[in-house]
UniProtKB/TrEMBL annotation:
This is Signal peptide peptidase SppA, 36K type. Residues 141-281 form the Peptidase S49 domain. GO terms for biological process: proteolysis. It comes from Natronorubrum sulfidifaciens JCM 14089. Belongs to the peptidase S49 family.
Length: 331
């Protein structure tokens, strides 16, 4: 089936190239005779190249060369790919982009299955859950796989897929939640700074780094972490068909792929090629053709990304300090 589509695409490209070649030569070489010079030949070549591209686009639309979509979740998971309000590492995973890619794959009639590539240490809670929900919505087989790291938020996402593949040396697990804050109270006193509270609501400024954390505030913030943790346990238990107590007993440990497989935290161990062979068997075909779905970014967004990378290179140290100026929760 795939080879038939390939032959059809090639035929369209060849026919399209021939048609545009005839048009180009006729317009710029043969008629009129005065234009049968070097400039005419060059213009004719431009027309031929344009024709090949147009024909290739038409062929790709009529006979797409893929039947499986791949979406990659790589790096820390955040809402927009950054780590805060100031410039941060450009290598983060923008959750909204990932959700859009999965939804586009789901709407593509040529896509029969979804591969979700997970190489992430985790990240923000709600963005991770948005990606998990998108994977659950996909109408067809969904297979998560990792070669390096599928931890915390990455495992949260994997719980929304039909199964998880890993390598023997992959790092898997870290089913837990962490909250962090910088206690800058002593430093503030040394430099002559003091914190003056103006707030409505007893816990509005809980976790503010310029004051000591009171016992009731610590209990309040720990309660938030515990609630998120129970949600995490529930997601993994339901999605991976594991007992909640077993999930809690992992105590947010990480495991190498082989041990994770023995504990049933991973469904299969294997290479990417072995995964594709297995998927081809399930879809009852000789082989699968995988297409990487990537974000659809307008020109200004691409320019903005470049500017962010430049800003990160220039001020990463400042951004790193600013990231921890308030209480933060992450997977």
């Amino acid at each position: 089936m795939a080879s038939g589509r390939g032959i059809a695409r090639l035929l369209i490209v060849v026919v399209g190239a021939a048609v545009f070649a005839v048009i180009g030569v006729s317009l710029f070489v043969v008629y009129p005779a005065s234009m049968a010079d070097l400039a005419g030949v060059l213009v004719a070549l431009v027309v031929v190249v344009a024709g090949i591209r147009i024909a290739g686009s038409v062929a790709g639309s009529l006979f797409p060369g893929y039947d499986v979509a791949e979406v990659a979740v790589e790096g820390p998971i955040t809402r927009d790919g950054g780590g805060g309000r100031l410039p941060s590492s450009p290598r983060g995973t923008p959750a909204d982009d990932i959700v859009d890619q999965i939804d586009r794959a789901d709407e593509d009639d040529n896509v029969d299955a979804l591969l979700l590539k997970l190489n992430t240490p985790g990240g923000e809670i709600v963005p991770s859950d948005d990606i998990r929900l998108a994977a659950e919505r996909f109408d067809g087989p969904t297979i998560a796989y990792t070669t390096d790291v599928c931890a915390s938020g990455g495992y949260w996402i994997a719980s929304g897929c039909d199964e998880l593949w890993a390598r023997d040396g992959s790092i898997v697990g870290s089913i837990g939640v962490i909250g962090s804050r910088v206690n800058a109270n002593d430093l503030a006193e040394k430099v002559g700074l003091s914190y003056e509270r103006l707030a409505a609501g007893e816990y509005k400024d809980a976790g503010t780094p310029l004051k000591e954390l009171e016992d009731d505030e610590r209990e309040y913030l720990q309660g938030l972490i515990d609630d998120y943790y129970e949600t995490f346990v529930e997601r993994v238990s339901d999605g991976r068909d594991l007992e909640p107590e077993f999930v809690r007993d992992t105590e947010a440990r990480i495991y190498l792929g082989e041990e994770a497989y023995e504990m049933e935290l991973v469904d299969h161990l294997g290479t990417r090629r072995e995964l594709e062979d297995e998927l081809a068997d399930r879809l009852d075909r000789d082989a699968v053709a995988v297409e990487a779905f990537e974000p659809e970014r307008p020109l200004m967004a691409r320019i903005g990304t470049g500017a962010q990378q430049l800003a990160y290179a220039f001020g990463a140290g400042i951004a790193g300090i600013a990231e921890d100026r308030e209480f933060r929760l992450r997977l």
